[in-house]
Amino acid sequence: MTIDLSSKVVAVTGASSGIGEATALACAQAGAAVALAARRADRIEALAKRIADAGGRAIAIPTDVGDESQARVFVERTHAELGRLDVLVNNAGVMLLGPIENAPTEEWRRMIEANVFGVLYCTHAALGLMREQGSGHIVNVSSVAGRVARAGSGVYNLTKFGVGAFSESLRQEGVPIGVRVTTIEPGAVATELPGHNRPEVLEQMAKRFAGVTPLSSEDIAGAILYAIGQPPNVSVNEVLVRPSGQGA
Fold it and tell me: How far from chain centre, in Å, is Cα 140?
């Protein structure tokens, strides 16, 4: 199935690496104009140039989505500079694992700001614009951790279960205004995301996923492209994608 996103505008958060970068590239290759948000300005500026050099259209907007004013500026600049907003991919996120007891609580705040408030703030800014257009699509990147809770990932689970609940409520609110909502739930993916954990957590993660070949960012970008490329009468609500070797 060939996905054609010509004339569409897609905004992607967390676009400086991993799933966000791969999604932006896939959408641009499908013909969309893309807006890129991330805190690392150099990364998204380089990505915008790469897309432009390949004949696409992209703008880079340095953004901390956990800051409400920055999230709103990202969405509103996307609409103003690219002319509309068809798809918002809420991909930015942080995964900091470890036991709840004695956890550095700053890690909790970082996850809640990015994983929860980032989704809320960008969505809040986008909904009115999509209502005016009479159409739109919001993709929230969650995780298998939004379905299965485990010891050692309690607060990360909290944020991703929250994204799932929010997405279903949002889906219902979106029906009468023509806004579709999709939750993407990746299993183990080879990205920079785990690398921010403490050494003892990384050791436990390595044991848990020993022998598992992780998904690539492009695998998840393909799932997102599939969901947003469906005709208007089709709403793909949830996509759970695990590596074949991942048991849970």
Answer: 5
